[in-house]
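Email to the structure team, subject: Peptidoglycan binding-like domain-containing protein model.

Hi all, the expression group asked for a predicted structure before they design truncation constructs. Nothing fancy, just the tokens so they can compare against earlier work. One-line instruction: predict Peptidoglycan binding-like domain-containing protein, return tokens.
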Amino acid sequence: MGLWEGNFRNKVPPWGVAMAHDDQFTATGPSFTGAGFPRAGFSTKSTDTVHGVNVVGTSCGVYGESLGPGQESDRQPEVDRTGVFGDGDRYGVHGIGRTFAGVLGFVRRPENSGGVFGIALRGAPGVVGQSRIDFLPDLPQGDFTLHGGEGTGVLGESGRGTGVSGESGSGIGVSGSSNSSYGGLFSSGGGAQVRLDPSELISSPATVGRPGDLLAVKRGSLASLWFCILAEAGDRPAVWGKVHLGQASIPNPTLDQGAQGQDVKNAQGLLLAHGNSPGPVDGIFGPQTVAATRAFQQAAAIVVDGQIGPQTWGALLNHF
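Reply from the structure team: attached below.
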């Protein structure tokens, strides 16, 4: 009895893989050479099959892993009830679609997570979308201007739900940037509405911010909108101006000794930015704030009265 005859009884030919019609055999055995491809556990040049791979498993349908020199594996998927599981140093699953999609995810039941779910550890993105004229097997590093992409990195659409949703405990939920166009574009058939959802825990402007930041602050059932005028620096917190409906969006009340509140804190931050220390930036207009105001007014060649009125506000906001 020859090698082929013995293996045929066991449904395994000597080169390691037996495949036939009508689901006769299960593919098994080591990788082999001579198929016209790099060594692989299974490969075929067939072009008329309906499915390249069609298998069902109790914990995973298809399990693929790429190991480097000296690496070992227990050949078990980390997540049960998985259709495709890929594990690799660079890509777990890498799909290229010429006319539709490289990777398509579909969920039958709406209560489940989603069609495509990305998780990353140690600060890497869970899902990365790029639009570029070339392809580099690396994550984007802010070099989008060098590669000429004109499409959409990540596109979210929804009939009644949410197109794109981002959450963060302490960082940025959704971030968008552009060198020459829009960092973010919002449109709606009923008006371009953007929801800023302030926490009940935030009842005053933040101590950090960058000029141009918008912040929704909630106190009880009422909310107000603030615009960052000056970034924080050292011990000085960021300076915010309250956005008033129908009024100027810069702080403009007249302040003098004894005044308290966020407007005083804004003024103290601006005085400190001009090199006139008002003492602690605590929202209390005390003697040190009066002295700092007088010193600034004298340097700005305006009326020296120790009060912060419209003229002093204008000088504080414009004399940089």
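The helical segments are 3-9, 262-273, 287-299, 310-318. Confidence is low (pLDDT under 50) at residues 1-24. Ping us if the truncation boundaries need rechecking.
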